[in-house]
Structure formats: C-alpha cells, structure tokens
Amino acid sequence: MRDEHLIENTCRVRIKARIAYVLTRFPQPTETFILNELMEMRRQGLEYELFAFHVNQDLASLSPYSAITPRQIPRPLTREVLAAAAWALRSRPTVLARLLRRRVCRRTHHLFQAMYLGRLAAHGRIGHFHAHYAYHSTSAARAAACIGRVGYSFTAHANDIYKSRWQLKEKIEESVFCATCTGYNARFLKERFAAGCPEKILKIYHGIDLNMFRDQARGQQGPAGDGCLNVVSIGRLREKKGFPYLLRACSLLKKKGIVLSLKIIGDGPDRPSLEAMIKDLGLGGMVELMGHIPHASVKVVLERADVFVLPCIVATDGSMDGLPNVILEAMAMGLPVVSTDISAIPEAVLHGETGLLVQPADPVALADALASIWRAPEMGAKMGRAGREVIRKRFGLEENTRRLIREFERVLAGVSSS
To answer: What global pTM score does this model have?
Structure first.
C-alpha cells in the first residue's frame, strides 16, 4: 500500500526521477565491488534506489551493508504486484503482449515483478534502470524500462558473458549502454554481440578504494623471517578457480623442502573434493580451507600474507573469471600476485612487474612461481609496491565510479528535457 500512495502522490506532484538499481540478491559478501560502487555514487551525490529480488535482511542490517537501504521487489502474488499487473494490462496491453511473445523474461514471475517496477517509472519516480549481471536482473530491468517507457543499462561481468547468454545481443542492442569491467570483456562483447552498436560497450573497471587497504611493508617478513611462505587465495570453491592445481603445486613445494602455509578463503560445491585431496596429498598441516569469513577478517589474513595466488582456469562448461576483484584487493594491500594468463587478469597482473603469470592448469609452473618469491622476498615486495601503484592509477574507485555517474547524469538529463 505504501508504494501505491507514492505512485498517487507522483501523479499530483512530479518528483525528480532517479536511477533504479536492480539486483538479483543483496547483499552478497562475494560482490563487494557492487557495494563499493553504490557507496561511492552516494558519496559523489548521485541519488538512486536499490531494488533486489531477494534481500537478506539480517546481513543488510550489518556494517558495511547497513549504509545502503535496499528494497525487496514484492513477490508476484502480493497486492502491490497484482495492482501493477492490473494497471499494465489496462495501460500497456500491446507492450505486455510483445514482451510475452519475445519471452524477454526467462522466468514469468520476473515479468510480473517488472510490471511493478515499470509502474514506478511510468509515474515519474524512476528515470532509468541499471542492473548488474546480464541475468534475470537485466531481463527484469529491460522489461520494466519498456513498460515504464524509460531506458535501461547493465553491467556485464563474467559467467553472464561467457556461459549464460540469454538474449544477450538483444539486451545490448536495446540498452542505452552496457558497461563491463575489463577490456577483454569489452572486446569480446563488441565482436560477438555488439557488432552493430560497439559504441554501447563501455569499459569501466571495478573501483578499489585504496583508503580501505593498508599497504604492508614487505620484504622483511615471511620467508625472510621464519622461512615460511604465507600464501592466501580467495574464491568460491568451484572448477574455474583452479584450486586442485594449487594443491598439487603445494605438494611439489613440500617435496622440495619449501615450508609453506596456504589459507583458502571461500566456500562452494568443490569443498568435499578439495578436502579429500588435501588429505590424500598429506597437506593437512599446510593448507586450511577457511570458508566464508567477514571482509574485515579477510584483510587481516591478507596483512599476514607474503603472496596472493589465484590459479584461474577455463572450466569444462566454458565459464571463466574476468578480472577477479580479490586480485585487485590483494594488489591494493601491496601483495605480489601469482595467477594465470587467461581473460583480463593480465590487465592488472603484469608479468614480472606486479606479479607472475603462468599457463592455466599447470601445477609445476605454479610451484615454480611461488618458489621464486620464496627465494627472493625482496622481488615480491617490489612487485607488491608496483601493484598498488597500478591500482591507484587504473582501478581507483572514485574515478571509475565518476565515469558511470556521468553516463547516468546524461541519461537523466534526457529524461528531464523530455
């Protein structure tokens, strides 16, 4: 009922249209880059509303998520959505027929929820929709924009580009713009899905707030001190992260007499197989699967590390990472990075300058790269300093967010003039 009163009020008093973010879930501990973007946009003065299909209220009440106020999109059979559907049937019958015929929303209930969002736009509350990931959130934003007669845009990331591509070409063509977080992604999208509108593809990196990450003085700790190489890796425990190859690399290093401690932060479907592999390789005293831990605790673990490693691969289903945010955060901490030369990782990890890159699925090369940092901690410290400088120059949160804000302001200026 509260939303219906807001809609009625906008009929009498025109309010300033805002950007509406549409997400599948909020908050997501693995998506700190979205949280950072939202917080920085607010700091720079852009007003927006955040909608999500699922809101974890318990997590949303905790810091730092509590700085953002998400609104859960009502479920399809609620009074708000049914009222919006009745309005859309009366006011937009041709539009709804076209959306159904084209199956713009893969799941029908998302189309009903899009009617709710579209009604808000039709009455002036929302001037533009923006979604993260080219999944259901973008489908709903696209439908809502059509119903509300406004524009939409979205940010594409990794699996939504390389694995699940539901109407991706059409989503780009009908959008105002499609942002993506790496140059590799941008080239791929222009060649495969936006050949007729390459200007709509914008490369906007995930911004990193250097103020949140303390640069560590390295080179006099870890292997230079107690002889143990402290290694950290972060990621969902799934095939594309390549963790089995990292475990085999640890086994090789152990056989060479190199003392190593590996902490893997994250959870996922491959945990049982990784636990079995740790046992079979006799790595129980060297490797710890830490599961999910709070972001503040992640920084504490990184502060004690000598090197960050993420052995990404292309999974058998074709999925792969773009440029994992955890790599950027590790670089912001002044850590050297060991990773693989796939996708956009070389855009940040410059081989021999900010870290070391090896071929994917190669435990021998991984072991050699880690051994080289164990033998020469001063080299790792130098790479760490260079990596933090790359983050400052290319991946700063303020400037990358400002680029996105300029696009939103341009869109809203058009809404105001019309």
So the answer is: 0.89
pLDDT at 1: 42
Nearest to 220 by CA among 380, 368, 336, 337: 380
Q: How many CA atoms lie within 13 A of 227 on its CB side?
A: 3
Q: Choose among 3, 114, 35, 25: nearest CA to 72.
A: 25
Q: What is the pLDDT of residues 201-232, one digit of tens each?
A: 999 999 999 988 876 555 444 454 568 999 99
Asked if residue 345 lies in contact with residue 309, where contact means CB atoms within 8 angstroms, the answer is no
Q: What is the DSSP letter of 178?
A: E
CA angle (27 as vertex; 23, 32 as ends), nearest 5 = 95
Please report, for residues 102, 140, 143, 357, the alpha-carbon distance to residue 112 in angstroms, rounded to integers and kept in the order given: 15, 9, 10, 47
User: Domain 2-207+397-417 in CATH: superfamily?
Assistant: Glycogen Phosphorylase B; (3.40.50.2000)
How crowded is residue 276: how many other Cβ atoms within 10 Å of its Cβ? 10
What average pLDDT does this structure show over 351-370? 98
Extract the runs of DSSP E, i.e. beta strands, from 57-215: 70-72, 126-132, 151-156, 177-180, 201-203
Start-to-end CA distance of the chain, whole Å, equals 30
Residue 165: predicted pLDDT:
85
The strand order across the sheet containing 260-265 reads: 287-291, 260-265, 229-234, 307-310, 337-340, 355-358
CB 239 within 8 A of CB 309: no
- Give residues with Cβ within 8 angstroms of 217, minimum separation 6: none
Question: Is CATH 3.40.50.2000 what the domain over 210-394 is classified as, yes or no?
Answer: yes
What is the distance between the alpha carbons of residues 151 and 133, in angstroms, rounded to a whole number?
Answer: 17
Q: What are phi and psi of 376, to 5 degrees?
A: -130, 75
Mean pLDDT value across the chain: 92
Topology agreement, domain 2-207+397-417 and domain 210-394: yes
Let me know if 95 is exposed, middle or buried by CB neighbors in 10 A (0-12, 13-18, 19+). middle
CA-CA distance, 99 to 364, in Å (whole number)? 52
Q: Round to whole Å and give the CA distance between 322 and 158.
A: 5
Mean pLDDT, residues 100-121 taken together: 96
Domain boundaries defined on the chain:
2-207+397-417, 210-394
Compute the Cα dihedral for 96, 202, 412, 42 and give only its sign: positive
Using a 10 angstrom Cβ sphere, with 0-12 exposed, 13-18 middle and 19 or more buried, the burial of residue 126 is buried
| Partners of 289 in the β-ladder | 264
